[in-house]
Amino acid sequence: MEPTQSAGLFESMSAGALGLFAAVSVASPFVGLWLYQDYVGAFLGEVREESAGGAAGFWSVFIRKLGASLRRFMGANYETNMRRRLTKGGDPQGYKPEDILALQVVLAVAGLVFGLLISSALGVSVAWGLLVVAMGAGYPLIWVADQVKKRHHLITRALPYSLDLLTLSVEAGLDFTGALNKVVEKGKAGPLRDEFSMLLKQLKMGKTREEALKAMIVRVDLPALTSFVTALIQADKMGTSLGKVLRIQSTQLRIERTQRAEKLAGEAPVKMLFPLIACIFPTVFMVLFGPIVFALMYGGVGS
To answer: What is the CA radius of gyration of the chain?
Structure first.
């Protein structure tokens, strides 16, 4: 190729590149504005509308968006099991199964970064960093299990009082729906009253008593409540007096609560044994024998 042709080709390419650069420079603000309005603006609008607001609102919207994008990768078994766990936990913070998956991904990535930094700083194996990743990915599952445990504990503690109130209302002449309404009005605030309120709404919407009670068993999945509800269903089928069944169940729950308190009281000395040996005994030995050891080491016994 001749020098004049090469120079012309170079000049034409330079002119094209300059023209493309100028077009991109002119169009980039409009593209950026379009992206801001469609994505960033919509995201910030949702953050402002979020009841939490601020950093908490940003985190909530971010997890919800990420969960919606990760939903396609979520298995059917994972979704079913996680939905059941969240239902038993009372749907904490309105999380859905895909939100828990998003939390696992975010904490796993954060654990990876933190683990790599720690591994490089301390000069240890990268396997320890992978351990931090596993801990980050598993923490949301532990959190959900803890929410279920707390809710079950609150329901177990509130059940005897609510059952006594339900028994008194039925024995006073109210039907089951009226007695349940009285428990919702006069009962203590908590997850059990919320479940009874949901049960009452389902009965008013036309569900049979058996269907509504079985739905509550599935939602809560607590042995004590399941036993009580199963007895109500059997009494309804066999035509047994509801007040008598409630009185028996109330007495049984009171006995179980006493036995549970006695069991915890019996376990207390065993649980106190390790802190006693690991923390208190060494301190006592240091106070008692520390001066003697010091005197023997520095030869101050005979002085």
So the answer is: 33
Q: What are phi and psi of 221, to 5 degrees?
A: 55, 50
Structure tokens at 211: 């269907």
Residues of the chain below pLDDT 70: 1-59, 299-303
Give dist(CA 156, CA 147) in Å, integer. 14
Architecture of domain 154-260: Up-down Bundle (1.20)
For residues 249 and 79, give the distance between their C-alpha atoms in angstroms, rounded to a whole number.
36
Query: In sequence order, which ranges of 36-96 are alpha helices (DSSP H)?
Result: 41-49, 54-70, 76-88
CA dist., res. 56 & res. 85, Å (int)? 24
Angle formed by the axes of helices 191-204 and 209-220, to 10°?
150
The kind and range of the H/E element at 275 are helix 242-275
Domain ranges of the chain: 154-260
Tens of pLDDT along 164-194? 888 888 888 888 888 888 888 887 888 988 9
